[in-house]
């Protein structure tokens, strides 16, 4: 029997890189091939570099402090964010004040046009409560002189709306000027970049810039007439008859029409804090601290819409935040929601607070409660509005801002204690978000609380 031949081991081909060029490679082919290999290597390196940059950014993001601002519409969330910017990044805040001038002018013009609409009979009931009729006749020349402010409003809305939408699309409707006793607002979608756009218009010589200048000139020419309108007793009597108090609404500048309407007007920090512009959706704001002790520190704020139809957007921002700042407008105890007039605004804040406190996603987060608009609360109570009329459980306690504020503080603290899924600290401040000096101390304390919590979470404490 013949001997069995040993199995032949397969010979693995030697791997060479770069691959051996074909034997018939000409000089031209070789040059083209080498160029293609060079380009492929550059693309590969660029992809690797982009991936590394993305990883680095993700590492940085994990170390950024993230804060979500919660509360119903007009609770002061955007004003609170402006306070953070003013206190911790004053240079960036200063750079944006020019853009806010158009918003402040729009706030003023809309208040004037709101009054003019009431004068012509656009009230909640459809009837004109301004009386006697002779007084309205006396105001007719004044109304005619102020009529150019309609066009000023259209121009400002178009510039702020970024996409040059029409007047109707921007939310202005002459057929329904009266909206539950409130001057109408412009709503800007999140991420619209309106500040940058307005700054570009200021720097460029184009039709947009010319329109803004023309609008300012018209407003300047109408300043004295605005003052005359606002000081007229018939106007104030009619507003009271409709249950309207423009002074208590955000973005009120009628008392300073001469200054704000001047052609050379430059917004003050307080003006910017008082300016009102409603944002639809979730705005993400990046704040880089500029002060020496915290320079370079980065915080990310999520300013979410407070209207009922926007609250479903809140939940995705709960899981990855370091702190929740909840704002309750204390002065709203006698007001109702614009989107549902059967719901009291203070009761709505209570219900929102209960929902947030009981959220398991927020079980280990910092909770900071700001009982806001203490200035308006004080004015309202001193004018004779009874708190117990709207909040029966207040009983016979004094009808003043100090006692009402303490009562609300006890209510919110009690709800937090009973509804929280786990024990945690609650930090409460009674605030007036447009008072810069008072807010400075509050902001420093808020930063200390958040930093201490962050350090504890990373085992530094």
UniProtKB/TrEMBL annotation:
<keyword id="KW-0807">Transducer</keyword>
<feature type="binding site">
    <location>
        <position position="279"/>
    </location>
    <ligand>
        <name>Mg(2+)</name>
    </ligand>
</feature>
<protein>
    <submittedName>
        <fullName>G-protein alpha subunit</fullName>
    </submittedName>
</protein>
<dbReference type="GO" id="GO:0046872">
    <property type="term" value="F:metal ion binding"/>
</dbReference>
<dbReference type="InterPro" id="IPR001019">
    <property type="entry name" value="Gprotein_alpha_su"/>
</dbReference>
<dbReference type="GO" id="GO:0005737">
    <property type="term" value="C:cytoplasm"/>
</dbReference>
<dbReference type="GO" id="GO:0005834">
    <property type="term" value="C:heterotrimeric G-protein complex"/>
</dbReference>
<dbReference type="GO" id="GO:0005525">
    <property type="term" value="F:GTP binding"/>
</dbReference>
<keyword id="KW-0460">Magnesium</keyword>
<keyword id="KW-0342">GTP-binding</keyword>
<feature type="binding site">
    <location>
        <begin position="273"/>
        <end position="279"/>
    </location>
    <ligand>
        <name>GTP</name>
    </ligand>
</feature>
<dbReference type="InterPro" id="IPR027417">
    <property type="entry name" value="P-loop_NTPase"/>
</dbReference>
<dbReference type="GO" id="GO:0003924">
    <property type="term" value="F:GTPase activity"/>
</dbReference>
<dbReference type="GO" id="GO:0031683">
    <property type="term" value="F:G-protein beta/gamma-subunit complex binding"/>
</dbReference>
<dbReference type="GO" id="GO:0007188">
    <property type="term" value="P:adenylate cyclase-modulating G protein-coupled receptor signaling pathway"/>
</dbReference>
<keyword id="KW-0547">Nucleotide-binding</keyword>
<keyword id="KW-0479">Metal-binding</keyword>
<feature type="region of interest" description="Disordered">
    <location>
        <begin position="1"/>
        <end position="26"/>
    </location>
</feature>
<dbReference type="InterPro" id="IPR011025">
    <property type="entry name" value="GproteinA_insert"/>
</dbReference>
<feature type="binding site">
    <location>
        <position position="433"/>
    </location>
    <ligand>
        <name>GTP</name>
    </ligand>
</feature>
<dbReference type="GO" id="GO:0001664">
    <property type="term" value="F:G protein-coupled receptor binding"/>
</dbReference>
<feature type="binding site">
    <location>
        <begin position="372"/>
        <end position="375"/>
    </location>
    <ligand>
        <name>GTP</name>
    </ligand>
</feature>
<dbReference type="Pfam" id="PF00503">
    <property type="entry name" value="G-alpha"/>
</dbReference>
<feature type="compositionally biased region" description="Pro residues">
    <location>
        <begin position="1"/>
        <end position="24"/>
    </location>
</feature>
